[in-house]
Write a structure and sequence with these properties.
Elements (H helix, E strand, L loop, with lengths): L4 H9 L7 E5 L5 E8 L3 E7 L2 E7 L7 E7 L3 E2 L3 H6 L13 E12 L2 E11 L2 E16 L6 E12 L13 E15 L1
């Protein structure tokens, strides 16, 4: 019987799926990342290593809320030289604007699952409307913590010049930035 226990726990883990509730993002498993053209010949990728977030999911209700706060100084492209420049005034100017923040109060649902969120992105002191696509939303029961764990891939595209980041645009470094966030969040 004991040899079946791990399989029963895994089976039970796959059965949870309710999405309504309040969630806290797991910062160790939530990865905000970006892609941008470099010299018009390749795609440069990077991520942010520190973030916090939370969400309230209320399909059919009015209590929907998503907030993701990213430490702009944690930008990491895997290239030490570029990483040393990103906190400076030409890019994220982290001395003056240490945080990038997305807040949404409208969430679209399909079949009870969130598929889009509409809100505002604040970067470099500039706030602009932003709608994000939510893909592959899935919930399960975490077999060790015995709590509901949900995950999704979030996608959006922005123009960095809309936020005042003009350095090298568009020839050296592209203007269009693809944003992706792999999110995992535990139900509170």
């Amino acid at each position: 019987m004991k040899t079946w226990l791990p399989f029963l726990l895994l089976f039970a883990a796959g059965q949870a799926g309710a999405s309504a509730g309040s969630y806290t993002f797991d910062p160790e498993h939530t990865f905000p990342s970006f892609e941008i053209r470099h010299h018009g010949v390749s795609v440069m990728r990077g991520k942010f290593n520190r973030n916090i977030g939370r969400a309230v999911l209320d399909p059919g209700g009015e209590r929907n809320y998503v907030e993701l706060r990213v430490d702009a100084s944690s930008a990491d492209t895997g290239h030490a030289g570029l990483n040393s420049k990103l906190p400076g005034r030409n890019f994220f100017d982290t001395a003056q604007f240490p945080e990038i923040r997305f807040v949404a109060t409208q969430i679209d649902y399909a079949d009870g699952k969130p598929v889009a969120a509409h809100g505002e992105l604040t970067m470099l002191g500039v706030t602009r409307p932003l709608s994000v696509e939510i893909r592959d939303f899935t919930c399960t029961r975490h077999f060790l913590r015995l709590r509901t764990l949900c995950g999704a891939d979030v996608h959006a595209t922005i123009r960095r010049t809309d936020f005042g980041m003009h350095y090298g645009a568009p020839m050296l470094i592209g203007d269009e930035v693809r944003l992706m966030v792999a999110v995992e969040a535990f139900r509170d």
